[in-house]
Amino acid sequence: MKQLLLAMGFTAFSMAAYAQTVDFATADADGNGVVTMEEAQAAMPDVSPDAVAAADSDGDGVLTVSEYEALISQ
Ligand SMILES: [Ca+2]
Ligand SMILES: [Ca+2]
């Protein structure tokens, strides 16, 4: 229960420039711990490839939790 409340708080805190953002666990559709370009665009159709690339700070083509947070807080 506490975890759920924390998750809800995090989701509210994550409201950002995008009209519709989703938390990392939701965006990571296959649950492998990283969000691919395809997963990001499936979760947020209005996110641009350039925005994903810009958030991918190590350039490996996938977003870690911290990289994803950078994306949704743009
Ligand atoms: Ca994934
Ligand atoms: Ca990366």
Task: Please provide a written account of the structure.
The protein has one domain (2-72): Orthogonal Bundle (Recoverin, domain 1), CATH 1.10.238. The longest helix is centred in the first third of the chain and has 12 residues, at 2-13. With 74 residues, the protein is mainly α. The chain is built from 5 helices and 2 strands. A two-stranded antiparallel sheet has the order 1-2. The protein is globular. It has helices at 2-13, 24-27, 37-43, 49-55, 65-72, and strands at 35-36, 62-63. Helix 4 (49-55) packs across helix 5 (65-72). Bound molecules: calcium ion (2 copies). Residues 28, 30, 32, 34-36, 39 line the site of one calcium ion.
Query: Strand-residue fraction?
Result: 5-15%
The distinct bound ligands, ions and cofactors come out as: calcium ion
Q: What is the CATH fold-level name?
A: Recoverin, domain 1
- Helical percent range? 40-55%
The total strand number stands at 2
CATH level 1 class label: Mainly Alpha
From the spread of the alpha carbons, the general shape counts as: globular
Any idea what the radius of gyration is? 12 Å
**How does the helix and strand content classify structurally?**
mainly alpha
Low-confidence stretches: none
Q: In the CATH hierarchy, what is the architecture at level 2?
A: Orthogonal Bundle
Number of domains: 1
Termini separation comes to: 30 Å
Spatial order of the strands forming the largest sheet: 1-2
Query: Major sheet, described briefly?
Result: 2 strands, antiparallel
